[in-house]
Amino acid sequence: MSGSGSLPLALSLLLAAASLISCPAAAQNEPKINASEEVTIHPSSSPIILQCNLTTSPSPLTYSYWVKNGEEISGTKKNSNTTEHKILKLRADESGEYLCVFVFANSPVANATIEVKASPDITVHKRSENKNEGQEAVMYCKSVGFPHPDWVWRKKVNGVFAEINNSSGRFFITNKDNYTELSITNLQISEDPGEYECNATNTIGSTSATTILRVRSHLAPLWPFLGILAEIIILVVIIVVYEKRKRPDEVPDDDEPAGPMKSNSTNNHKDKNLRQRNTN
């Protein structure tokens, strides 16, 4: 009985020893990458060099390359345990999440992440929006920079930008990473016109851009027609006044018949002929 009880114990000890031996071996086969620390882009800083060094390879290296914000950077493939990527233009649009990726012949892909941070910079926004009363207005802003900013919309009230009061329920804000959108439904000409500001803020800095909203009366589409109609009315009035002010001698006398006028002309002609005979 004692011999049979010691067999399972010996077997368990043997398995435990085997696991202790295999674990370090497995750990040694895992890839190890030494990568640069995160960096921040400043306008006055010098060019940035991102570096990755593959110190442990589980199988022969096929190639390596760089990725920015999920997209492969062209021209970065190489077959080397050490790779680097240079950022020469120190702009906010060069910031983001960079990965150095190592591809092996018989092992899963390995990578390391390097964050390149920058203050937000609003590159696209609608400078003005012109709508009619009752319509919907849409304003938007788009930025570059990393990390993605927190967006806030404000409206200028009494010369100061204040957060939008949405008590009417007509304001809708949509934020997604580096993009924000403000829509206002059922525009009111007495409440909604003015300056609106989008503000982007992340851990590095903050920036803003302004859009001017103009709201016209719902009669605005009729203004061109009303203008033409007014011109026609003015022209008709001018013609009528001109006809009223014609000189009296340009108007024929209705009391004088046309027959006698012809008779007088005939008589004058006869008198002229008679004078000529007498002279002869």
Q: Report the principal-axis shape.
A: elongated
The succession of helices and strands, N to C, reads HEEEEEEEEEEEEEEEEHH
**Cα end-to-end separation:** 187 Å
DSSP E strands, number:
16
- The proportion of strand residues reads 35-45%
Secondary structural class: alpha+beta
Give the overall pLDDT as a whole number. Answer: 83
Helical content stands at 25-40%
Low-confidence stretches: 1-7, 17-27
Structure description:
- This protein is α+β, with helices and mostly antiparallel strands.
- It is 26% helix and 41% strand.
- It has 3 helices and 16 strands.
- Residues 1-7 and 17-27 have low confidence and may be disordered.
Structure at a glance:
The chain is α+β, with helices and mostly antiparallel strands and 280 residues long. The chain is 26% helix and 41% strand.
Write a concise keyword list for the protein shown above.
single chain; 280 residues; alpha+beta; 8-stranded mixed sheet; 5-stranded mixed sheet; disordered N terminus
SSE map:
Blueprint: H1 2-29, E1 32-35, E2 39-40, E3 48-56, E4 61-68, E5 71-72, E6 82-87, E7 96-104, E8 110-125, E9 128-132, E10 137-146, E11 150-157, E12 160-163, E13 171-176, E14 179-184, E15 194-201, E16 206-216, H2 223-244, H3 258-279
Parallel strand pairs: 2-8, 9-16
Antiparallel strand pairs: 1-3, 3-6, 4-5, 4-7, 7-8, 8-10, 10-14, 11-12, 11-15, 13-14, 15-16
